[in-house]
Amino acid sequence: MTDIDKEITTIDYLVARDFVNAMIPPLKPSDTVQKALDWMSELKVHQLAVVKDSEYLGMVQEDRLYDSEDFDALISNFSLQYSTIYVFDHQHFYEVINEANKNNLQVIAVIDEFKKYVGVISVNDTAKALARSYATQEQGGILVLYMRDYDYSLTEIARLVESDGVKILSSYIEPDTYDRSMIKLTLKLNRTDLSRVIATLERFDYQIIASFHESEKLNTHKERLDMLLHYLQM
């Protein structure tokens, strides 16, 4: 096993912690209805997490707050919802989408392994950004490669891809969160079956950490992308 192979085993690609929205703060039980409504209006969300001493208590809903006749009332006076609905920070983003979709949540709480509050994910905004960055509206498949930044050469990768009669429609590079010397390269290709391309790249020691394509042997990722796009259309 190479050093890169060892590092890949520690990588959680597209996990919840990567999508926490630091711009959406939690409410405290001691906050007022008016403060909660002001934040919701400013942030354009209908739900906010309520947290006390790093413990996630649940979500407060905008419509329930408007039903209150006392805008100086404290959030602690309200019955919170979704106290048992959350995702762990290491869970895959598809699981985040699935959990939010099941519970009709616009934002979903993220907690760590010690059940301490980490933040929230604005599911709709994040999913739309993800879909745009992957160009999922275009027909074709997607590959995500993991490599050292000094090994990156789009010219060489394109040569290998095109040797199988496939073209790169778009590419996107992002640094690895845990090791800045490593990068993730997302490729959108013009074929839906990328089996041959995958085999070619792996033959030249490229590490593929995610693939979204159709083939007789692999269609799980297509089903998950369909779920994502279905969620965006809701």
Helix fraction bin: 25-40%
Radius of gyration: 21 Å
- Per DSSP, the total helix count is 8
What is the molecular shape? elongated
The percentage of residues in β strands lies in 15-25%
CATH architecture of the largest domain: Roll
Q: Tell me the count of domains.
A: 2
Question: What are the secondary-structure elements, in order, as H or E?
Answer: HHEEHEHEEHEHEEHEH
Order of strands in the sheet with most strands: 7-8-6-9
Taking the sheet with the most strands, its summary is:
4 strands, antiparallel
Mean pLDDT value? 82
Distance between the termini: 44 Å
The first-level CATH class of the largest domain is given as: Alpha Beta
Low-confidence stretches: 1-12
Structural class: alpha+beta
CATH-defined topology of the largest domain: CBS-domain
Strand tally, please? 9
So, the CATH homologous superfamily of the largest domain? CBS-domain
Task: Please tell me about this protein's structure.
It is built from eight helices and nine strands. The chain is α+β, with helices and mostly antiparallel strands. The chain has two domains: 16-123, CBS-domain (Roll); 134-232, Alpha-Beta Plaits (2-Layer Sandwich), CATH 3.30.70.260. The radius of gyration is 21 Å and the shape is elongated.
Keywords, separated by commas or semicolons:
single chain; 234 residues; alpha+beta; CBS-domain; 2 domains; four-stranded antiparallel β-sheet; three-stranded mixed β-sheet; 9 strands; disordered N terminus
List the helices and strands and how they pair.
Elements: H1 3-8, H2 33-43, E1 47-52, E2 55-61, H3 62-66, E3 87-88, H4 93-103, E4 107-111, E5 117-122, H5 123-133, E6 141-148, H6 154-162, E7 168-175, E8 182-189, H7 195-203, E9 207-212, H8 220-232
Helix pairs in contact: 4-8, 5-8
